[in-house]
Every structure is written in C-alpha cells, then in structure tokens.
Amino acid sequence: MGSRASTLLRDEEIEEIKKETGFSHSQITRLYSRFTSLDKGENGTLSREDFQRIPELAINPLGDRIINAFFPEGEDQVNFRGFMRTLAHFRPIEDNEKSKDQNGPEPLNSRSNKLHFAFRLYDLDKDDKISRDELLQVLRMMVGVNISDEQLGSIADRTIQEADQDGDSAISFAEFVKVLEKVDVEQKMSIRFLH
Amino acid sequence: MHPPAGPAASPGPAAPPAGAELLRWQWQEVQVPCLVAAWILVASLAKIVFHLSRKVTSVVPESCLLILLGLGLGGIVLAVAKKAKYQLEPNMFFLFLLPPIVLDSGYFMPSRLFFDNIGAILTYAVVGTLWNSFTTGTALWGLHQAGLMDPGVEAGLMDFLLFGSLISAVDPVAVLAVFEEVHVNETLFIIVFGESLLNDAVTVVLYKVFNSFVELGPAHIHATDYVKGVASFFLVSLGGTAVGLLFAFLLALITRFTKRVRIIEPLFVFLLAYVAYLAAEMVSLSAILAVTFCGICCKKYVEANISQKSRTTVKYTMKTLASSSETIIFMFLGMSAVDTSKWAWDTALVLGTLLFILLFRAVGVVLQTYVLNRFRLIPLDRIDQVVMSYGGLRGAVAFALVILLDRDKVKAKDYFVATTIVVVFFTVIVQGLTIKPLVTWLKVKRSDHHKPTLNEELHEHAFDHILAAVEDIVGHHGYHYWRDKWEQFDKKYLSQLLMRKSAYRLRDEIWDVYYKLNIRDAISFVDQGGHVLSAAKLALPSMPSRTSMSESSVTNLLRESGSGACLDLQVIDTVRSRRDKEDAAMHHVLRGSLYKPRRRYKASYSRHFISPDKQERQDKEIFRQNMKRRLETFKSTKHNICSSKSKARLKEKGRKKKDISLTSDAPNGRTHRGVPWQEAAPVLVMVSSEEEESDSSETEREDDEGIVFIARATDEVLQGKATPGSLDVCPSPCIIPPSPTLAEKELPWKGDQADLAVYVSSETTKIVPVDMQKAWNQSISSLESIASPPGIETGPQHRRFACPVLEEQPQSASQAMPEQISCFQFPSHVSKSGRSLSDSSPDGVEQQELQPLMASEEQGRALPPAEPRRLMFSRASHI
What we know:
The complex is a heterodimer.
Chain A: H1 11-21, H2 25-38, E1 45-46, H3 48-52, H4 55-58, H5 63-70, E2 78-79, H6 80-87, H7 95-99, H8 111-122, E3 129-130, H9 132-142, H10 149-163, E4 171-172, H11 173-179, H12 185-188
Antiparallel strand pairs in A: 1-2, 3-4
Chain B: H1 27-52, H2 54-59, H3 62-81, H4 90-107, H5 111-116, H6 118-145, H7 157-168, H8 172-182, H9 186-216, H10 223-256, H11 265-282, H12 287-305, H13 308-336, H14 347-373, H15 382-390, H16 396-404, H17 413-442, H18 454-474, H19 479-498, H20 501-505, H21 509-535, H22 553-565, H23 569-574, H24 578-593, H25 599-602, H26 605-631, H27 646-661, H28 666-688, H29 691-703, H30 705-722, H31 740-750, H32 756-762, H33 764-779, H34 783-787, H35 790-808, H36 810-816, H37 818-836, H38 840-862, H39 868-878
Helix pairs in contact in B: 1-3, 1-13, 3-13, 4-11, 4-12, 4-13, 4-16, 6-7, 6-9, 6-14, 7-9, 7-16, 8-9, 8-17, 9-10, 9-12, 10-11, 10-12, 11-12, 11-13, 14-15, 14-17, 16-17, 18-19, 18-21, 21-22, 21-30, 22-30, 24-31, 24-33, 27-31, 28-29, 28-37, 28-38, 31-32, 31-33, 31-39, 32-35, 32-36, 33-35, ...
GO biological process, one term (chain A): negative regulation of protein import into nucleus
Subcellular location (chain A): Cell membrane; Cytoplasm; Nucleus
Organism (chain A): Aquila chrysaetos chrysaetos
C-alpha cells in the first residue's frame, strides 16, 4: 500500500483516493508532489516533524492541534491516503454532490464531517464532549496574552452556557452542530484546491 | 398633505423701506442656510409622514416615495415661481450630499464579508461596468445609425459612449436605499453594494475620458489617448484608494491621542473622512473610493481608540447624515425632473436605453458569474444572478454626471438628460417596487439577522486558523494564507502603532464579542429590570434570591465583563450575596421612592431640569397616598414624618435591627465581600502602571459608566433569570449570610452627610447601585438616556475613590466604627495578595494620585444639606 516517495502514484491508487475523497486526478497528483516534498524522510509517510517544518504552521495558534488531526489514533506516521482523507474535509461541496447525497457513505467534505473535524480539535480526550478545560485550552491558544485567565474562564463559561442544552456543562457534538447551524460552514470550512 | 414648503417656496421679499425701524427683514442674509434647513425639514417631515403607515412603506421603498414627493413639490414650485427652482445641483450633490452616504456605507461595511468577496466585487465593478458602458453606448449608436432616432439627436459614437459610461454605473445610493429594505442574504448584498461603490472609479474615468474625447472631437484622438485612458483608470482607482488609506491611517493615529479631548473625537472621524473625499476630488481621483476605503480601514482602530460614547455618537451622526442626504437626494431628483427646459424627449433613445441597460447588465452578470464561479467556493446560483441583474439600479450619480455635461460640446445633452431621468425613475421606482416581490417569489436566501453568539465567533475563529493551516500544509498560498499574513502584520505593527496601548492590550476579537454580548444582555435586562424594580417596590421578598448559583457562569461572566473594558469592577462584584443584593434593591426602592425635600433638586443645575416634573409627580403621589392612607384608617403611630413610605421604611428598620444583632458576624461578611476587590485591583493596576494608561483609564472609566451601570443592573436581574425558581427562599434577613454593617452604612451614605467619608469608604460597593438607581429612576428607560444623566457621573467615581479613603484615612474611619473598618480593610488587602500582590504598590500610587480628586469629590458630595431625619435614622441604626 505504501507508495515510495520516489515512485509516482499508481493509477489504481489514484482511483481509490478519488473515490474516497472526491479529489480530481490532477488535484491528487498535485497534492502528492506536495506530500513528497514534505516527506523529508522519504519513506512514504509523514511524521509530526515533517509537518512542523512548515514555517507558517509553527506560528498558527492551532497548528499543533491541526497536525495532530492528521494522525490516526495512537500513530505518529501518516501515509498519503490518510493525508488525503484529512484534506478531503476541506474540499468545497460541489453542486453535483448535493444531489447524490442519499446513497452511499457520507462524503468526507459534508457539513457534518467538516464540523466534526473542528469538534475533534477541541475534544482532546475524545469523549465526544468539549469540557470547560478543553475549551479553555483552545481559547488560551487563540486569544492574546492580554486576556487574563479569569476573563478566559468567563468566556469559556459563557460559551458553554450558550451551547449547552442538556445542562452537563460541556458541549456535545450535537450541541456543537446546533450552535453553529446558522454558520455557513460549507464556505467557512472549505478551501479551494487548485485543479 | 405634505408639509408646506414654507419659506423655501416663497421668493424672498425685498427689504422694507429705509428709516427708523424696530425690526428689519433680513431675508437676504439668511436665505441660503434657511433654505437648506427648510428643505431638510421638509424631507424629514415627509419621512415621518411616510412611516405613519406601515402598509405603504412595507410595499413601496422610501426612495420611490421621496421621488414622487419631489415631483409633487417640484410641480408646486413650478406653479408658484413660474420656473423650475431648487434642482439637484451636481456640485451640491458631489460635495455635500454624496460623501456622508459613502462614508456611512464604508464605515459600516462588514469588512470581513467585503474582503471575502473582493474578487467578485472587483470583477463586477470593473469588468461589469466597462462591459455595460461599451455595450450600451455602442448599441445606442447602432440604433442611431439605423435611423431609428430623431434626427435632432446629434451624437456620434463618442457621445453615446459617454452617455453609456454615465448611465451604466450602478448607483450606491439607490442600491442601498432599495436593498436595505429587501434583506437578501449577505453575500448577495455585499456583491451588489460593493460593486456599486467600487465602480465609481470606472465611471469617473470613463466619463472623463469620453468627455475629453468628445471635446477633442473624434478627429484629434490619437492612440496615445487610449493608452492614457487606460493608465488614468489605474491612477484614478489606485490613487483614490491610496488617498483613502492614507487618511484612514492619519485618522487612526489621531484618535490614538484624543484621550483628553474625548468630546471632539467624533469630529475627527467626520472631518478626516471628508478631507479625504475633498483631497481625492481635488486631484480628480476617485473620491468615492477614497472615502469608502478610509471608512473600511480606519474603523477597527478608531473604534478601539475612541470612547464608547464617541462610538455611539459617530454611529448615530453618520446614520443621521447619510439618511438625510439620501432623503434630500431622492427628493431633489424628483424635483429636478420637473424642469422641462432641460428635456428633449426621444422615444427611441429612451426605450433603447432602458432595454439595453437591462439586457446588457443581465448578460454581463451571467457571463461574469460563469467565470467567477469557477473560482468561487460557493458558486452564485441562477437566482442570485437574477437578483444581481435586476438590482442594478441607477441613481443620482448618473443624473449629476449628465447635468454636468457641456451643452456646447455634447449637442444631445437635453436628450441624454431626459433619458437619464427616465432611466433613474424607472430603475428606482419600477425596479425598486418589484424587487421585493421578486425576491420573495424567487425564494432568494434571505439574511437571518440573528444575534452573534460567542460560539459562532469562537468557532469561526478556529475555522480561520484551521483553513490557514490547511493551506500551509497543502502549500497553496490562497486567500486564507494572505489573510493570515495580514492579520499577523496588523497585530505586530499596525495595531501597535495605531491603537492606544490600553486598547491594544485589551483587544481581542473573541473578547470583544463576549463583551458586546454582555452589554447587550445587560441592556435588555436593564430595560426589563427598570420596570420590574420600580413597579414592584414592595415586592422585594420575591426578588430573585442569590444562592450558590451566584457563582454560576452568568454572574461570573458579567462580573468579568467589567474587568475588560471598564474598571469599575466593584459595581458588578458587589452583588455577591443575596443579602447584598437585597440591600441594594431595598436602597433602590428607598432611594427612588422616598420623597425628597425640594432643595435637594437645587443642588445641581442639571438636576434642576428634571425637578419640576419630578416634584409635581411627587406632590401628586404624596397627595394620593395620603388620601389612601386616611381611607384605610391608618392606625400606627410609629410612622413619623416620612410615613408615606411607611411600609418600606418599616421593613428597612426591621432589617436594621436584625442586622445589628448580627454584627458579630461582620468579619465573615467582610471577607466575602472582600473577594470582589480581588478582581478589581489587577485591572486598575494594570492600567495605571503606565502613565498614559492612568489617564486613559480615568477617561475610559468615565466614558464607560453607562456600561458599568448596565452591567451591574443586569447582574442583578440576570441573576434572577439565571436561577429561576431555584431556592426561591423568602429572603428574610435572618437566613441571609450576614454582612450587617453594610446595610447600616448604606443609609448614612445615602443621606449625603458631611461626615460621610467613613461610611462611603467602608461601603463603597453599595454606593453605585444606589446612586445609579437614583439616576435611573429619575428619568431613564433607554440606554441613551442612561448614559447621559449627570446623576450617574458621581456614582462610579465616588465608589472608586472611596477605596483610597478607606485605606488612607483609617483614623477618621475609626472614629465611627473602628473594628468594622479594620475588618473590612483586612480582607481587601488579603484578597489582593494572591494574584495581584505585586500590583498593590502601583495601586497605592494611583490612590495617592486620586486622593485630591477624591477629597474634592467628597466635599462636593457633602455640600448638599443633609436630611436631618435620615441622618438621625441612620445614626440610630449604628448604635
């Protein structure tokens, strides 16, 4: 399965990825070359260090969380399939995809999957709930140092209070979806991949 | 039916005969301003009349009504004066009427949305306008060549292109007027509206280029002139933008240093924006672009720098100016149409123009959207395109431009004027009337104006970071990459340079949203709470109780919200226990409803304004209550002079007694109450640590008093909401966690006694609610009025200064009640020890600084004569 860094992708592999992620052929090859250029170890997988070498990512407040999102549970290597699977979350939803939604598995770039990706960034302990502590950690990363801990705490409290419906002082995924229902997630969680 | 045109309609009579005269008719001197004022008045009154009927305005856009009104007025003027007067002069339009509208739309432009769609906006604005101009111009010329037009229309290709350039630009004023009432979704709105603003550069350039071509004559145009035309487009648009950015920068920089002259802050905003407009106009750059970008870019920094009151002022002034400009523009458009001397009708030209602008706009939109959709994340669908095509309204800009044409050079000017008027009227009236039903019929996605939530803000922020990271990983430097870069640059350099240090440090978007949400909540709760409190004077026992939930999020949040921008934390913090809150509420009630001796009102000038009304009410109330009391066979003799409030007083008295009995518990209560100080101190200190900040903290606090007040009141009410039904214990004093000394000292303080300092200082936290409530009760029900009354002013300051008093004049304090003071003082220090131990010394410094102020304040407060009765009463409670 693992493709050599030096070799090109096999056609059947591309087909599989295409089917799974919905990327076009040219997008896949383009991303594959990016993948190989990131892969300094040249072993067909990316490690955390490979990601951390991207300079802009180092200054992204959520950079580490996002890097982690690329790695499956408990692993510290990600192959091209996994890489593409994660990126597929950010593919914009196209018109022809809206119609054929009913049959087959939900595409990776569906609204729900996009939201779930974001949700998992918060949910460190993977209990399907964003607790106050988890929220605080993310807040701490995103806001400037000028905001005091108390202020952050109150923001977190209010955020949870706003979203919390069942009174467990945590945000479940359902509550997360509900609170963002008016947000244009399709647009705000999509980037344009070059064709 | 319409308000009479008044002086405006009647020509100014000649001056009366010479000789000794008591009064002189000086119409000539005041004519111009008087006319201006009269027209504004007429237009504004007309607006009121329109909005008397909801039915009419919900169907007919205001702009249509105004144009029709203008037509009517124009007819009257024509009939009276026998000639058309009061036309829409291009100079007046471009120099005075247009800038406010453009500034308003630029300043309040949702910048994120705007820049998210900047590609589409620019395409439609530049390519679309070019396309419209050329196709319309050429098609009309073709019509002319085909001999369909009246031979009187002497115009060549250049004339028609010139006409095409001025008639094809979508007009921001008209678009705004119509689309604001339609409420289509934000993306659609921003594209149409952004286009109408940004196409100004294209319009201006095309207009000027073709105008010069017409003047030169087709024979003398060289190839270099075309190149110059293209070059001038870039110069005009980029130059205009640069001027706008320059002035935005200046404006932001200036507002950074206005902390001592808060009162003229709004002036700077208007002045610099206007100067930007004039400067761009002066060098014939695109003035609309200049003001638009000035508004868009300066907003972030200006809003951070200026005070809350200035923000409100800027907002309302801008809206007022823009709305009156718009009103006048449409009214004068209508009036100008009456002037038949400018008219030369040609059916083919008029119909052709109407057809072509509609047709070519639709074609242009479809073509451009087809291209754009290949690059857009969310493609614009067919319905969007229909609305965009149909929403291309023409307006006053086209009219002003066509009036500006030189009749000697452009022979067909009269025809063009007539056609422009018809086109403008058609688009504004017919399209304006039908676009609403069309939008409904097509089921265009409407904008849902929901309140922003903290979650949305927070998660969208996270989305931005995620997208930027993904773009980095993918290695594709797209929009998010550059936005991220820009934000970092802005944070590192621009904001540091352009924002006040205090504002910069406290600045965070999530925090801002959070803060605004709290304020909004506060306002709504105050609005409700105001009635609740005043109506339910005696319903205190049912006041929402403070239970363990008092530490729950809402309260915390509200408390914290104080620490963000306003430094008067104590206000919010006070209400920690139910006991406190009740005391405060009780004081509100007493404060608000105890009748006051008249002279109180004369204590300050501003209060004097309110006094007659209030006294009258008070007299009536006393009378009524007296009668009622007699009827009810008032039986108790222990009510003394103030017995009209007997119930409340009794209650208070009873409480006092119980309180006294619990005095021994005071330390506990104190410690509890000391906690709030903990939160207060760091903020104060942080701000005062820098010289600049100590100033700004002061001014800012002053400015934010309204908020403070709100937040506090909300706290109280919100609490009630947050714990509905939870432990609805009857808050009788004995259950309440004791802090009895507080209650005792409230009244003395309230009495404005001369030896107040002690009480004030020890009871700082109580004062605000009382004072504010007073102000509140005096006149306020809405936020605006909350901010203004002078009664509020004393509250927060007083409270704040009170703290130093306590700590620095222990001896005076000890005279009254030594042990209580000490126990109060202690916790307030202890409580600071945790997080803010290191901060305590600057705090002390600030206290010293404030000391003189405090003293004068103290004296000022002591000046009003005390109320003997109350004094005695409170004294009694101490013993």
